[in-house]
């Protein structure tokens, strides 16, 4: 604090209030949670695109894990089944990775999802100009606003990503059971599946934050005079 | 001789006790609207003494809102300086500005501007949280303030469950949260009907009197004239005249003729 404000604080130094503006983390969490709860259906729709993209990612990965599990049996019949199902297997391959076509489709769906999130969040920020301006008039720093938006998106991201990842994994397992018979599931390494689900969740969470980042910066830079902007 | 000396001393004393809480010095503001330069303020000099109830009145486009924003630290002048408690606010950094808004100034808006997702109590305690007050102290003080404005039993209600007048009362309570030195009210009665408007004006006047808070309000509302200690008439980016309480001639019709 510069010399200037020591004049300000002089008279009020006996207050139970500190000399700096703060926003405790617990409070930011509470505020962000309330914001989501109030706009529940709108949050749902934004999160839905994330859920779908992540479930697709999870589906692709877990299907691969199942295929790898089957390959590890070394059974030539199984190899033929897999090749017929569309897996690209050379005669020597003992593991399969996601092929370029799969990867492309996943990347595309993720891009679409991110664009959707950026758009929705930008709209939300523009809608809430008065609220943001008011908070700044009450003394909020830029980074408080940033934190609130990041927390909001983070919470939505975690819930959506977990839901999507688990859904995708379940779909994939059911699909594999239908394609190759229930017994195929016993060869799958549980560790692989868990890693895939965790990976998909992580990606979803990061996407959510990436999508909200630019809109949140816009929000935090908003001038408090916007709150005064009334239709006279 | 003795009398004159005594008078001189009391004058000096009262001058020292009355401080200039806001000082506007040669302030101009020019906005760029496309290719056109709009001169909103064309050189304003103004002193506002602490503890007074001041109204800034003027027609639309007179620069009233611009001047108001300058005083409130929401905008920077193109030239000239604004001093709050003799501190040039253009020199403050972001943290100090935030502190100023949190602790020294309370804002009241025409559109109430309560946070819709929070209850009345949470709205009132928000500035206290920014100020670092503990939760229990904040809640206690918040309830006190809500009682003061007559909404003690509605502390759990969200803004959409409150009428316009009630929302503005919550806003008044919120403005007082951190014991500010100044309350800035931008058209506080703009969205309220006649009776509710009068109630809010009376409330502001009472509270400012009890708590020795300087109230500066920008308004169209003639009802505000009755309670103001000082009225600043602004027109065309310049101060037209400043009237003290005693000089105000209030008769319906005579104020109307100017605009």
Q: Give the radius of gyration of chain B.
A: 19 Å
Number of helices of chain B: 7
Assign the structural class of chain A, choosing from mainly alpha, mainly beta, alpha/beta, alpha+beta, or little secondary structure: mainly alpha
Q: Supply the CATH architecture of chain B.
A: 3-Layer(aba) Sandwich
CATH superfamily of chain B: P-loop containing nucleotide triphosphate hydrolases
Strand content of chain B: 25-35%
Fraction in helix of chain B: 25-40%
Uncertain segments of chain A: 1-16
Explain the layout of strands and helices.
The complex is a heterodimer of chains A (232) and B (259).
Chain A: H1 3-10, H2 25-38, H3 40-71, H4 76-85, H5 100-127, H6 129-137, H7 142-180, H8 190-221, H9 225-228
Helix pairs in contact in A: 2-7, 3-5, 3-7, 3-8, 5-8, 7-8
Chain B: H1 2-17, E1 20-33, E2 36-49, E3 53-57, H2 64-71, E4 79-84, E5 87-88, H3 94-104, E6 105-108, H4 120-130, H5 135-148, H6 164-175, E7 182-186, H7 194-211, E8 214-219, E9 230-235, E10 238-244
Parallel strand pairs in B: 3-8, 3-9, 6-7, 7-8
Antiparallel strand pairs in B: 1-2, 1-4, 4-5, 9-10
In brief, what are we looking at here?
The complex is a heterodimer of chains A (232) and B (259). With 232 residues, chain A is mainly alpha-helical.
Comma- or semicolon-separated keywords:
heterodimer; A: 232 residues; mainly alpha; elongated; disordered N terminus; B: 259 residues; alpha/beta; Rossmann fold; 6-stranded mixed β-sheet; 7 helices; 10 strands; globular; disordered C terminus
Word description of this protein:
The complex is a heterodimer of chains A (232) and B (259). Chain A has 232 residues and is mainly α. Chain A has one domain (32-227). In chain A, 76% of the residues lie in helices and 0% in strands. Chain A has nine helices and no strands. Chain A has helices at residues 3-10, 25-38, 40-71, 76-85, 100-127, 129-137, 142-180, 190-221, 225-228. In chain A, helix 3 (40-71) crosses helix 7 (142-180) and helix 3 packs antiparallel against helix 8 (190-221). Residues 1-16 of chain A have low confidence and may be disordered. Chain B is 35% helix and 27% strand. The radius of gyration of chain B is 19 Å and the shape is globular. In chain B, 46% of the residues are buried. Chain B has helices spanning 2-17, 64-71, 94-104, 120-130, 135-148, 164-175, 194-211; strands at 20-33, 36-49, 53-57, 79-84, 87-88, 105-108, 182-186, 214-219, 230-235, 238-244. In chain B, helix 4 packs parallel to helix 6 (164-175) and helix 6 runs parallel beside helix 7. Chain B is an alpha/beta fold and 259 residues long. Chain B starts with a helix and ends in a 15-residue tail after the last strand. Chain B has one domain: Rossmann fold, CATH 3.40.50. Chain B has a six-stranded mixed sheet with strand order 6-7-8-3-9-10, with helices on both faces. Chain B has a four-stranded antiparallel sheet with strand order 2-1-4-5. Classes of the chains: A mainly alpha (232), B alpha/beta (259). At the A-B interface, helix 1, helix 2, helix 6 and helix 9 of A face strand 5, helix 3 and helix 4 of B.
